Structures are given as C-alpha cells and as structure tokens.
Amino acid sequence: MILSNENKRYTVLLIEPGEDFSEKGCGVLAKQTPSLGLVSIATYLKKCFPEISVKVIDQQNQRSNFNSQVGTYLHLFLKEESPELVGIQSYSYNFLSACKTAKEVRSILPKAFIIMGGPHPSAVPKEVLDYCPEIDGVVVGEGEKVLEELIETKDDPDSQEKYGFKRSIDGLYTRHSSFVPRQPIEDLDSIPFPDWNIVQYKQRYARAYSYKYRMMEFLFPISTSRGCVFDCQFCSGKYLSKNIRMRSPQSVIEEIIYDWEVYNARFFYFVDPNFLYDVGRAEKICDLIREEIYYKRNGRLSFRIQTRANFENERILYKLRAAGCELIFLGIESGDEKVLKYNKPGQTVKMVEKVVAAIRRVGIRVRASFVLGLPFETEESIQKTVSFVQSLDLDGVAFHTLDVYPGTILSEKIKIENYGGLYLDNFNEVCLPVVNNEKNESQYSRNTPFYGVNDLTAQDLGETREKLSKMYPQLRRSRVREDILRKNLCELRYFLDWDIKIFYRILDEKIEEIKKVQDYQRDFWLKP
C-alpha cells in the first residue's frame, strides 16, 4: 500500500447522504442505527489496511454533527482531512441527495476519486454516471472487495489514468474501462464484525423503545445473510445476489457475544429480509443465544426479526420467544388474493392469517406493512385489505404507496402498456431527473404516489394511505392501547433529555396520538 505522502495517512470517507432522515419517508422520530453496510465496509477496510484512516459520515443523523449544520460539518471535514477516496451510498429515494453530496465533494476535492454504491446505482450504473458527472465510478453489488482492490491499485500509475482505470476492477463500473461483474462473497463468516466505534454509536444515535424492557435501549443491527430468492415485484432486495448466502449460527452468536461484551448490547435487530428462510438454522441461533447468554453469562437480551409469512413450523416461534424475540415484522402487502398472487408469489391470505395467529398465540408482538397501489389493485381490493387488517391481531401497521425502483421486476413489467392497470400519474420533473434528454420514470421518492392503478388515481392512493395510517383500527384492542400509551410517554421522556429539538418536534404529534388512544370508543370511519 502506497500512502499519499509521508505526513498524512491515506483517508477513505464513506457517506450516508440525505439531510432529512430517510428523505421524509420514515416515521421514526430520530435515527436509531447507522448504515450497517457502510460500517461493515469501513470495518473490513480497517482490517485489510490498518495504516489508512477510514471515516463514516451519516448526513441523515440528527446528531452526526453535534448540533452544527450538516453541510458545514461535511465541508469542514473535507477541507481538513482531504480524503483521497470517497464512497457515497445511495438508494432510489435519496439518489438526488447522493448526487448533491457528490457535487459538494467534487467542488472541494477536485482530485478525489468518488464512487457511488447501493441498490440504485447497482441497478442502473450507466444512468447514474450519465446523470452525475462528479462520480468516477459505481460499485455494482457488494462493496468490500471492490474497495479493497481499489485502494490497492489507486496509487499504481499502471492501473489509473485520471479518474479512470486502464484495467477493470471487477464490480466497478467506470467510464473508461469495460465492466466485469464481481462474484458475491460466499464466505460471509470471513467478514469482520462491525466496529461501532467508527460512528460513535452511543453518542450519536437515539435509543429505541423495547417492549421487553419497557424502556429505551440502543438497538444493534445484525445481518446474518445476504441475497434473496423470492420474486416480489416491487422489491430491489436481489441486488446483492439472487441466491441466499448465510452465515453459520456459530458466527452469528459470536457477533452477539462480541456486541454484548464490548458495547454492553442488550437489544438487537436482525435485518435479514427473511430471517426464517432456513428454520433449522434459526432454531440453532436461538439455542445458542439461550446457551451462551442466558445460561453461561446469566444475562438476557431482546431482539426483533422480519420474515415472510410462508413458514409453517410453529416450534420456531416458541424458540424465538424463549431466546428473547419481542417482535416479528411481516411484509403482508395486501389482503386481496389476486394482488398477492402477482406481486408477492408464494404468500396467501390464509397463510398470513395462520402465521399471525400463531405468533400471537406464542406471545410475540407482530407488526405488518401493506403497499397500496400494487398492480391489479382496485378500490375493492383496498377495501379487502382494510377488512383483512381489522381481522388480524396486529400490534402495529404501516401503510405505504407503491414506489417503482430500478432493478425491480416491476420496473421492467411497467414497460408493458397498462400492466396490472398501472399508469403514470402526477408526474413531477423535480423528483424524476432527466437522463439522456429523456424523462426517467423511476421513482426517486418515498411514499409520494406517482402511479395510479385501475380506478384509483395517485391522489386517491396518497389520501387513503394518510387516512389509514392515522386511524388503523387496532387501537381498539386494550393491549395495543396500553403499549402505545407506555411507548409514547417513554419516548417523550427520553427525547426531553436526549435532544430538546426532537422533543418539541414530536410533542404535538405524540399528544395527539395519546388523545386518540384515550378516545378509542369513537366510531371509526371504517365501520359501516
């Protein structure tokens, strides 16, 4: 490794862009976890190159700059540290913010090598380079190995020629070399555990409410697999590979123990989109948690998972509960069989009913998400979804409107005229950049409807989402009412001490929600 000069260490900067947390698309009050992907890459690079400096800046974090302006903080960092390599993570919803950040970096550091990675650039690398001239390359897929090779060759004059490489690096899409895909990392156990000190986790991120502890706790994300084999039309989750690669249960428990001992972690979130894909492996992880934490260390922990509803092994639910699982998140998406058939294959209404009942029977809380405006959606199918939600014993519901992201199955199918009744509505050139002098119909926002479907306009879908989000009928359940009251009061007390600005921002919203819970006996608009 060749350092840039004798007095300064080679510096790599990784950025999570977007001064608004999740670009106004997330209902979380303050950011609770850093980007696991960026911290994983930073940790990997530190292991490969102990002599370099690797930094992560999270522009979405309210406290990432300790109350200074986010733009000012980034500007000062770039001036003082002058990183030679800058990586920017991008999803579709924050792509414009990522481009804005790239432009700012280029204006201050004209000689830096700037790359962009994430689901959106991986899906359309050429379009990203065309739209954002400040970027020198796009990482397609996983970033660890690409950045490792990029650092190894960046100072080699035989490998680089003014922001472009004479020879290609597998997985790096540039304007000056042919693209060769990089094979996904097969041995996920070889990737080091995230070093949360890189982002000063406990100083900069908010705690989350734990139902088990009934208090605010730091929430530690863990990824135990990568990739997906399912064909949900609207999901871009396959960008890391179409096959699921899984860590061994022993590796997973070693990370949990590491976080437990080093960071005093007691609250975890398994970010895998389908944690129960391999039920036998999940059972082993639960067994190891009980053995290593509950018995050997005489401790306890709490965790959350997300999964599909297409598993029938109820025994795993009891093992999850015994290991400390307090909540399961299900992506249900619709209560109409036809809509599910075309958009979430392998999942049926009956299957969802059975799984939700089993989860509640075991005593684990369950939340669900629904997407309004999917192909083949109608006003009648939305009413079926509403009735379905009312029939389920859920602890929370999130309603979304359809976002069509590049790289999804749906992004190809919408090219078929009137597929599923979809039509472009409410077109907004501010949110949809022009690429090659043509309007790009990719959705660069979150929960801002751009598509109508059959008898529903984009405005109809947006209004329905707002109405359902505010008035979901599970408030009538006494257990849920008590949870909401306790959670809201606990959050208010926490943010009063943690960040007074956030406290005042949420005060009216929380008080209004508490009033609704107290007045739960009123007639809901959903009732005939």
Cα separation of the termini? 71 Å
- Helical amount among residues, as a percent range? 25-40%
**How many β-strand runs?**
20
Mind summarizing the main beta sheet? 6 strands, mixed
* Structural class label: alpha/beta
The poorly predicted ranges are: 1-6, 162-166, 427-443, 523-528
Rg to the nearest angstrom?
23 Å
Biggest sheet: strands side by side, in what order?
Answer: 2-1-3-4-5-6
Q: Average pLDDT value?
A: 84
In terms of DSSP E residues, the strand content is 15-25%
What can you see in these coordinates?
It is a single chain. With 528 residues, the chain is of the alpha/beta class. 37% of the residues lie in helices and 16% in strands. It contains 17 helices and 20 strands. It has helices at 36-48, 70-81, 95-108, 119-123, 125-131, 144-153, 201-204, 249-262, 279-295, 315-323, 337-343, 349-362, 379-391, 409-413, 458-470, 478-498, 500-518, and strands at 11-16, 53-58, 85-89, 113-117, 137-139, 172-174, 208-210, 215-217, 220-222, 225-226, 245-246, 267-270, 302-307, 325-333, 365-372, 396-401, 422-424, 434-435, 438-439, 451-453. The strands form six sheets. A six-stranded mixed beta sheet has the order 2-1-3-4-5-6, sandwiched between helices. Strands 9-12-13-14-15-16 form a six-stranded parallel beta sheet. β18 and β19 (438-439) form a beta hairpin. α8 packs parallel to α9 (279-295), α9 (279-295) packs parallel to α10 (315-323) and α16 (478-498) runs antiparallel to α17 (500-518). The longest helix is centred in the last third of the chain and has 21 residues, at 478-498. The radius of gyration is 23 Å and the shape is globular. The N and C termini lie far apart (71 Å). The model is unreliable at 1-6, 162-166, 427-443 and 523-528 (pLDDT under 50).
